[in-house]
Task: inverse folding
């Protein structure tokens, strides 16, 4: 039984047949749909959604009447009411589910509202991505009919008085449609497991019973899972266990630093598919084989705005100013970094998601993720993005034929000036002086501002080689183990202090 032979609900079939209009028209249609649905909510009444709908230019009117929000602002002013069980706050009805989202820089979890409307939009995007695989050349499409191993968060959600909370991946699996269940691995019992180490062990024990064609998850945990299967059954590669494994769907972090180590575990080449599925919604996905970017979801359930990521709109700490310049999709330019504002079918309005993106093909609405608004280094004007860091690590590791699955960077004082301190995970023997020199030189080639500052106020670049386990142990000590948690590429403030204490063998909170 092929997954695409399943009879889908009529509402989803109708959505899949929507014509492909231009992105601007699609986005305005989505905005109007969101506004009409939420016009009678408290948020919609306060910010005059009826007036926006009546305007000849609803996009501009929306930006004029509705302020921008970060998490703390929208939670303190609006979302806290929904957690108390109050209906019709930012979206019609009561919010029954919340995705818990937290970066390592945040001590408390963020409660992101999840609605059936949002999940339905996510499902439609997932199916569209599956359909796009038919255009891939040299790929056995039959692999889609095999098992889908999804390394997701626990489906055992936290229950409160008025809601359930957990990882978005866990909520999605728990509410997955009936037609997907026969393909889904590791199954409901293992999916409930909250302890990630136990979950991986149980997956390893079940591995011989499955015929896996797809693996979905964050690269670090998928790689660890495959290593455990290979070690447990004394295999040469993962394809000796799963010969039909042809696809790896990944997202959340750049795959390039993991790719070299990942491919050592394979018996044949597989197809990598990048997705941009955040707790707030399914934002983009790789639509074409060998595409350099992901296609933004412009016609379903998310309205997108783009704030130029520059000194006019963000301060030195990555905080957005109150009334930033915000562009619609037809106003952007290729090659520039933008911070994303999203409005979704879950009552998320003009919300700063925290990621920065760059258009690599405006006509196709294809973007790459370049970093986070707060995860960048610019101590003296070097403007070093996560995209620069990922590329430098990739090029340096290829030059030395080593795998660097994790890394992070900190800006530190250097006399009266500054330096960068790199921490990299590498389990092989490596000449750290040669490695840091390669990283430094590659960054000079990739970033003109960095090259200039290396001749002035950025006086030195240092490097410490650690094991991958040390990175994992730090995350565990911070209580952030699992597929939704990624090690930050830039360390600042209290997080840097905790990292330094951890490396010195001291207890951290």
Result:
């Amino acid at each position: 039984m092929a997954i695409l032979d399943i009879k889908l609900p009529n509402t989803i079939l109708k959505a899949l047949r929507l014509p492909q209009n231009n992105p601007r028209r699609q986005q305005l249609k989505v905005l109007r749909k969101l506004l009409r649905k939420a016009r009678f909510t408290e948020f919609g009444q306060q910010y005059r959604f009826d007036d926006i709908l009546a305007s000849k230019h609803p996009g501009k009117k929306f930006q004029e009447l509705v302020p921008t929000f970060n998490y703390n602002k929208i939670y303190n002013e609006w979302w806290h009411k929904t957690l108390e069980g109050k209906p019709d706050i930012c979206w019609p009805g009561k919010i029954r589910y919340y995705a818990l989202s937290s970066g390592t820089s945040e001590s408390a979890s963020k409660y992101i509202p999840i609605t059936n409307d949002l999940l339905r939009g996510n499902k439609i995007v997932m199916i569209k991505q599956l359909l796009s695989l038919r255009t891939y050349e040299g790929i056995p499409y039959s692999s889609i009919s095999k098992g889908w191993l999804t390394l997701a968060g626990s489906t055992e959600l936290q229950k409160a008085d008025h809601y359930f909370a957990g990882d978005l991946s866990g909520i999605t699996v728990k509410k997955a449609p009936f037609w997907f269940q026969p393909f889904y691995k590791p199954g409901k019992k293992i999916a409930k497991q909250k302890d990630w180490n136990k979950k991986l062990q149980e997956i390893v024990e079940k591995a011989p019973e499955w015929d896996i064609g797809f693996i979905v998850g964050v690269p670090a945990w998928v790689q660890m899972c495959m290593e455990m299967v290979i070690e447990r059954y004394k295999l040469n590669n993962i394809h000796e266990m799963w010969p039909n494994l042809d696809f790896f769907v990944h997202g959340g972090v750049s795959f390039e630093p993991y790719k070299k180590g990942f491919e050592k575990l394979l018996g044949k080449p597989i197809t990598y598919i990048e997705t941009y599925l955040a707790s707030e919604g399914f934002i983009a996905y790789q639509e074409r084989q060998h595409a350099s970017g992901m296609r933004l979801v412009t016609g379903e359930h998310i309205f997108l705005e783009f704030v130029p990521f520059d000194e006019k709109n963000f301060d030195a700490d990555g905080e957005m100013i109150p009334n930033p310049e915000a562009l619609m999709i037809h106003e952007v330019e290729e090659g520039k970094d933008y911070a994303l504002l999203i409005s979704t079918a879950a009552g998320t309005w003009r919300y700063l998601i925290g990621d920065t993106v760059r258009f690599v093909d405006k006509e196709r609405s294809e973007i790459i993720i370049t970093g986070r608004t707060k995860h960048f280094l610019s101590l003296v004007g070097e403007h070093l993005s996560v995209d620069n860091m990922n590329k430098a690590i990739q090029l340096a590791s290829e030059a030395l034929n080593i795998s660097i699955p994790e890394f992070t960077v900190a800006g530190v004082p250097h006399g009266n000036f500054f330096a960068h301190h790199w921490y990299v995970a590498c389990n092989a023997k490596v000449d750290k002086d040669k490695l840091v020199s390669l990283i430094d030189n590659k960054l000079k080639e990739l970033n003109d501002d960095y090259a200039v500052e290396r001749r002035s106020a950025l006086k030195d670049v240092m490097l410490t080689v650690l094991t991958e386990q040390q990175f994992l142990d730090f995350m565990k000590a911070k209580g952030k183990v699992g597929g939704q948690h990624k090690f930050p590429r830039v360390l600042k403030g209290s997080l840097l202090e905790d990292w330094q204490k951890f490396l010195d063998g001291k207890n951290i909170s």
Q: What stands out?
A: The first strand starts at residue 97 and ends at 101. The chain has two domains: 1-374, 386-503.
